[in-house]
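EI: anyone free to look at a 185-residue chain?
SC: sure, send it
EI:
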Amino acid sequence: MQAFGKLRDINQQELELMLSWRNAPNVRANMYTRHEISMDEHLAWWARTQQRDDQRYFMFEADDMPLGIVGFTGIDKTSQNSSWAFYASPEAPKGTGSKMEFLALECAFNELELHKLHCEVLAFNAPVIKLHQKFGFSVEGILREHHKIDQEFIDIYRLGLLATEWAEKRVDMMNKLIKLSGKNA
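SC: here you go
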């Protein structure tokens, strides 16, 4: 849906921008990897990623401005499922996450032809859990005290969405985003 922006390939010259967003404190706080990532570490990760066919990363762009990253990992073509995650630029306007999620779901179920999309969210990131649920994701389980941050063990929410569930939810979410886009215009 072009009105919400688009997902496109990431250009080599955007890797520094991508890293600056990923290292932003508010993004890092909600990730498994929380240390500040060096450029060398980032470039080595990117080089490994480019060699794999079970991972795809996209730049989210709206009005010709890069605003975020969407990634699919562990793409299993046999079972037609994948994990996914996203993060937005710290300067991204309100509503960017919803647009990114809509386009990610379109990509997952149309382009990647997945049967199921799933993700993991740190328990304290309630806004993202709620966002995923708004798009039709169900909490499939809670991995209790599964991840250690500093000296505290954190629960991980596992969420999943089936292609059939997205097909039922898609038009409703598209209409809500159109309405929100009209208010922000």
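EI: The beta strands are 6-8, 56-62, 65-76, 81-88, 116-122, 138-149, 152-162.
SC: 👍
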